[in-house]
Design brief:
By secondary structure, the protein is mainly beta. It has one domain: monomeric porin ompg (Porin), CATH 2.40.160. Helices cover 14% and strands 53% of the residues. The chain contains three helices and 15 strands. It has a twelve-stranded antiparallel β-barrel. A hairpin with a 4-residue loop joins strand 7 and strand 8. It is globular, with a radius of gyration of 19 Å. The termini are far apart.
């Protein structure tokens, strides 16, 4: 029996609400009894894209508004995504492999699997921080896409300015026949009380070289909390954003809400 679309969307929104309540109530309570040093270390690594920490994230990305007139189109959109991060060593060099698998659940756009992103970074430790150099690729899942595969270089760095503050920048580039896109992700993460963090989150400044315009100029903040569910370390986070690139059809207000299973090295 097929579940009506509206009922499925309602159920999903109820689950998102429940997750918010869990973040605000259960999350802070379950941290009791943990070693504060371990919690602080996991929180710092979870907000650093160059850190060698295995993790598995599941998050919802809800776009509450779009710029310009709607012209009868839905005024919002909901995408659910799964993001595994796998650190490994190849030829004596530390690497980080990350994949993002998004699926549009409802709202503006087709309800389908979206472009899958994959990158691999070789990570180099330096006295002042870490540098990551590698490649990124995007695999289209739509028959209407201009390019089935786009790929390019990726580079980034993270530098600790103090015990609790990390800053850096991460750049990804995708090129193909009809694709020329660059992404800049500012990295700013401050560790608060053990387990709590404030960061820029997954802010992606996106420029389309073919169209000669910004697709995304977001400003936002991410609040995260490392806790335990039983013996399993997890991180809850919420990340509201606003996109200042206001061309018609581009997202306006959005919020990401997610949970990440953290798997520290033994």
């Amino acid at each position: 029996m097929r579940v009506p679309r509206q009922l499925a969307v309602t159920v999903l929104k109820c689950r998102v609400t429940a997750a918010v309540l869990a973040f605000l109530t259960l999350g802070p309570a379950t941290v009791l009894g943990q070693d504060s040093g371990d919690v602080a270390d996991l929180s710092a690594k979870a907000t650093d894209p160059t850190a060698s920490l295995m993790s598995f994230s599941l998050y919802g990305d809800y776009t509450a508004s779009f710029h310009g007139a709607s012209a009868g189109l839905p005024g919002d959109a909901l995408v659910a995504a799964f993001r595994p991060v796998i650190p490994f060593t190849a030829f004596g060099q530390k690497n980080i492999l990350r994949m993002t698998i998004p699926y549009q659940v409802s709202g503006r756009g087709e309800e389908e699997l979206k472009d899958i992103a994959l990158f691999d970074l070789a990570v180099f430790d330096r006295d002042w921080g870490r540098v990551g150099v590698g490649a990124v690729a995007s695999f289209s899942t739509s028959d209407q896409a201009a390019d089935e595969v786009a790929a390019g270089p990726a580079i980034g760095f993270v530098r600790p300015l103090s015990k609790g503050l990390n800053v850096g920048l991460f750049n990804q580039n995708l090129f193909a026949g009809d694709t020329a896109i660059s992404q800049l992700q500012p990295i700013i993460a401050y560790q608060l009380a053990p387990g709590w963090s404030l960061s820029a989150g997954d802010l992606q400044l996106v420029y389309d070289w073919k169209a000669g315009r910004w697709l995304s100029l977001p400003l936002g903040i991410q609040l995260g909390k490392v806790t335990k569910l039983g013996s399993q370390p997890v991180r809850w986070y919420v990340n509201p954003q606003y996109n200042f690139a206001d061309d018609p059809g581009l997202p306006g207000w959005s919020v990401k809400l997610g949970i990440t299973l953290l798997v520290p090295a033994p």
